[in-house]
Amino acid sequence: MDQLLNWAPLLAILVSALAAVAIPLTGERNRNLRETWTILASILKFGLVASMIPGVLAGQRYGVELLEIAPGIELALRVDPAGLLFAMSASFLWILTSFYAIGYMRGGKERKQSRFFSMLAVCLSATIGICFSANLLTFVLFYEILSVATYPLVIHAGSEKAYRIGRQYLVYAITAGIALVGGIALIYGVTGTLDFVPGGFLDAGAGAPMLWTIFILFAIGFGVKAGVMPLQSWLPNAMIAPTPVSALLHAVAVVKAGVFGFVRLVGYVFGPELFGDMGAAIVLATFAGATIVLASLIAMTKDDLKARLAYSTVGHLSYIVLGIALLVPQAMLGAAFHMVTHAAMKITLFFCAGAIYIHTGKKKVSQLDGIGRQMPITMAAFGVGAVGLAGVPLVGGFVSKWYLAAGSVDAELLIFLGVLLVSGLLNAAYLVPIVTRAFFRSSEEHPRFGEASIFMVGPIVVTMLLSLLLGIHPDGIFGFFSVAEAIVESVTGVSFSGGG
Amino acid sequence: MSQIPALIPTLLLLAALLSLLAGLKSQRAGYFLALMGAGASFLVSVLGLVEVVSSGQAIRYAMGGWIPPIGIEFVLDHLAAYMTTLITFIGVVVFIYAPRSLHFESPGKATFAYPSMALLIAGLAGMTLTGDVFNLYVFLEIAALAAYALLAIGERGGPFATLRYLLIGAAGGGFYLLGVGFLYFSAGTLNMADLSGLLPELMENRAVMTAAALMVVGLALKMALFPMHFWMPDVYHNAPTVAAGLIAPIMTKVSAYAIIRLFLDVFPPGFFTETLPITATIGWLSAAGILYGSILAIAQHDYRRMLAYSSVGQIAYVGLGIGLANPIGLIGGLLHIVNHALMKGLLFLIGGAVRLRTGVTRIPDMKGLGRSMPWTMYAFVIGILGMVGIPPTAGFFSKFYLLLGAVEAGAWIWFAVIIVSSLLSAVYFFRVTEMIFRDPGEDPAETSREEGGEKDETTPDQPQGDPPASMFIPIAILAAGVILVGVFNFVIISALLERVVAPLGG
Amino acid sequence: MTIEFFAGRYPYILIAVLMGIGLYGMTMKRNLLKKIIGMTIFQTSIYLFFIQGANKSGATIPVYLEELGTEPTQYMNPLPQVIVLTAIVVGVAITGVALALLLLTYKRYGSLDEEVILRRMRESG
What is the ipTM of this complex? Predict the structure, then answer.
């Protein structure tokens, strides 16, 4: 069984790659069959990822070395807790997004649907590849594929504006990719290896200028995708893509790939000790802290619902980066868990925004007065997501924020505790009013009850329930919390026996 | 087995001759003979490659039974096997592509084009195989003459651009020949193996230094190393696709090969790096060329001109590998020879296919091709990804090794140049990609339609859609090659290139 | 001293001058025909360089003679002369192709002046 599971990571990558080929070959003529490929691939992928959970928690590291792609560097996959956590959230949410996207694309009568579903599948393949990469070169390989495969989705609308944003997106993404390749070349030059090692493999002997150059190149490479200011400006613009893309890629898969890169960088390349000693940790934490506050402030000024959510994403991604940069076990645990909880909550919000748009054509916050009476389920879910992001107990966001806050106390950097509290308030300030105006303000426009199609409402309800479950019983589903603990244990050596 | 080195160019020379004679009677027969010659030489090259790799020994053949160093020797070693396989492979691919393309672009000239193509490939294969520095000059000029003939059948401005190229080529050849003279009068031999034995004693000899400098300058002119590239854009712009498809991928590379050969196997270790700073000079010129080529490529509206400037930058990657002069960097440069041959060949052939179907050669007119020629454009995207260096295409790995080489050499400026140039090539290539995947209906007020001057006189008489199989198959083969070479690049490196760079002490 | 220096090397100096003239013609002349003439002068200077390099005072042409035997100092070095023969063949071929291209260019643009041709190319597209 364990032998077979060694192939699971590879199969998890291939299954959506196959779907990406099958989708355009089936094409527009047989839409139901085409959508079947997406659904089938997403369920299979999640099954493959989930099948590895017990083994990985028990200390197994599944993986294969496929072939040598450069002297001494294999194209190799290895499943560890960090990759597994990210893969679990991405692949589970892909199932929901698949259903949702069917409702969205058909409801909106979008163009080029085959290309859309095919590219989405490629993106998921690349994301899972990023999760399970055993070394930096494999990581970058999938990271670049993800960058390129997202481009057709960003320009999906085909308008002049979409192309302009697509160009901006590419410039950012390619710059990031090349910075990474440069950083990797430096690391390889210094150490002669690129394999991830829990606790890091760089040592201080390389000298401060070299370490800082490496750090800066990687910070650019990952910071772009993670939306760390000042590299964030592509992300709100990329919201021009269809909402399923915004929901899955620009709240979960693509942006978290950047965040996950920081996890790998700090935990598995530099190692927390060196990262703190050289002083990079505090720099990264400062950037992240500033991003958290600024992004929340900007979010308040945005009337476009998706733009507001995008800035909220920018802020929340930096929660995770901050948690990593604080380097203490509690904060890392919070960061790891926030990868999951934020994914669940933010995808709920995006799903809601998309449902509102497809169903009523409304994109702006100021148009949403009274819409809660028309679409109560959608707006209730939105409310759960909103309070969750603000950090209210019983929703997942509370748990991860709790550990982040505890971590900043542990790290004796109380300013970041302040940042977290302020941003919690700001989060409430820019999200909760949307819910209140939807339910409590009246408008003549929304006379009768009417939700979007079941394809869209179904996933919304599931992600809402997931957000709640993560808050009430963090380990209850798929052992997300245990996996997060296992990450911190493997990186820092600190054990959370018996769960948090 | 031991005849393999001689067989490769001989088959092609024979094919060129027979093709011309037969072609006068029947064009089809002429084509068939030339194609057979190219195919046979490719098979023989592959045989030789397998033999060299499995035995680990070079295959040597003394021409006419004269024992070297008196006679001329042909040597198929790892580097030569690598190059001849590439050259004959591209040759076969372009031959498959040629008939439809020539029929459309240069009607009535095909009879003479096929022998010229075979002759060009023969010259290039000869250059890589010969173990004699003067013989290399002869093959260099054979290849050059065939290239002039092929280029001249291009568009209206073809002969003029070719004539300017010819003058540069003659100067390059002349400098090289002069260098050969200095070398001969100092060392008393022309055989490469012999020279490498004699030259260590003559390291400080001024005539030997002059010889090295002259030979490298001559080859650099032929290689289009910046700033000696100025002939290239006009030539490619006016060339028939078939000529550009042969010359851009392999001809400039073979000159680069000759420099590498002189550097590694003829002149003593340290001569090009320390006695004379030749590799460093090539490296700096290449770094400048990379930036210059990439920036000018952005400014071009004509597809082939853009590719030409891109070639100025891309050939400079090979030069940078020479400049780094350490094993991993030179491996990057050598790998880029194959990568760029596949990618640039692919892009030129696609340009020809687009022209056949739509008559379009300007980038702003390329709108909507993604819809009308979808498969060709998928291949195009692969080529683009390779040029930009997105993994797992081949382009990524050569740049990666160059970066590793730059780290090892501590050449931080070159390191930065490689990084910046990848961005620049992303800019100019994604511009085209964006164009072709736009709907043709979107914003009609694009300026270029009115200018229109550069459009072909020949209007397409073909149905729309992907090109005919004889043109699409070569495109597909090259596109597959771009990915396969990337994924399996380490196989090439461990089987061949590590042996090649062994003189550098890796 | 100076005289001896020149006396020993004057053929090379003449060759260098010739080469300079050739290169000047190739690069500076606007007329394409003159460029080609410059090219042939340049090539010829290289042939002469080889021939001069093979020269030995007192030696004869490298054809076996009974009375001289196989003493190498008695014959000039034959190899450079072979090289020159080959190079001349190459050079003739290049010149031939160059003249053919020149004719084609003249037919299309009605001029041999580079500047004029470039202008006409731009005008006609």
Answer: 0.92
